[in-house]
User: What shape does this take?
Amino acid sequence: MTGIVSTPLWSEWLALHDRLTADVVRTGRSSNGGLTDGQPILVAGVAGALGNELRPGDLVVADEIRGDAEPLPSHASPLLVGALRRAGLRVHRGPIVTTRRIVDAPDARRTLAATGALAVDTESALVAAAAPPGLAAVIRAVVDTPDHRLLRPGTLVRGPKALWALRRAAPVIDAWAAASGDREVVLAGPRSFCAGVERAIEIVERALVKYGPPVYVRRQIVHNSHVVRELERRGAVFVDEVAEVPEGSVTVLAAHGVAPQVRTDAAARNLRMIDATCPLVAKVHSEVRRFVARGNTVFLIGHRDHEEVVGTQGEAPGQVVVVADPDEAGRVRVADPRRVSYVMQTTLAVEEAEQTAAVLRDRFPALNGPRSDDICYATTNRQQAVRAVARDADLVLVLGSANSSNSQRLAEVAAAEGAQAYLVDDASTVDLRWLRGVRRIGVTAGASAPPQLVDDLVRCLSGLGRVAVTETRVADEDIRFTLPREVS
Assistant: This one.
């Protein structure tokens, strides 16, 4: 089952038909005319903007299609918006309303705008009604606005501009049609937030309630853009260094841990400091201090620019040597090979980290390590789960921000199993072209990615066709870490 494109007007059909490989039909205001019940439908055409913040030639993608009947959701709209923006088009997402007659009067448009709708046309809701719930999509190019009305001579210029924008959208429309179809989505379990991330976020939330905004946070509390934006909305202020925080202010240290010098600098500014360091990261810091106290050189297996590694190395910069991979492990030198230890960044790919440790053990027989594995339980569980899902998937999508180490490792683990795998920040960053011919998609989320992102992605995929959702679970997690006394 592939999607079908509807162009209600002849001018819209002429703008698109020679640019599309997808089926495109001119439907007028009717849901008939070549549409088949059960098919995804994309209505492409022109519309009138309800507010002057939209300009002629802008595109509007409907997240809801309103008419005389119940509003119709458009589940795939974030996928379309992301694709169109990456194509360089100016795009807005929101409700589109269908009326029986052309709405040109400014007062009438203001009345519709007050409902939250962005644009008005006379066909979308009627055509979209032929699609199953959620499977209709609408892309409309703006011809007129309240300040540039339809029934004016300027439409002779604005109309072609809108149709040209619609024509530029043709590759995205084609990708939508090719990506349409029924598929299975297999969720990896566990996925999304771990106990350390939940604890760190809760610390900031409680600090905002207890002390009131602003609450300052050194660096990103966890490596996820959605989490950071939501906490900023509530009153958190993120800074790079404690020197940027006003003296005496409430300051939270992020989950990745910090070097002792950061605490010293915070104390010098009389900051009310709340430590959100993940207890498993704090364990690695403790191990480094223990090994250094023996006079050992400590190999820190990890990525040297990652905040966790920077903070851990800061415990003893002269005695901690970062080793990124097996090649570096084969070249590293120390003054006394009889006094060496190793620790690991908690968010590494398990197999790669072990390969690096194995090289170090071969080269340094006296090497000793931590009493228990440094790579955290959540990282291990999520890697095992995505590995199980990837073996039978055509495509694996990993939700997580690009600066999230554990999320990056999940994509790498999935790719190592032979699956096509991508790290995506959210559903809007999924490329429709990846979905062509794909019938089984594995989905997971890094330990710092909100679970809502998984729900949103599944909903978007359900806008391309029927989706059967299953789960492959390799472990259950019931760990919860205590909160610091400052917010408990």
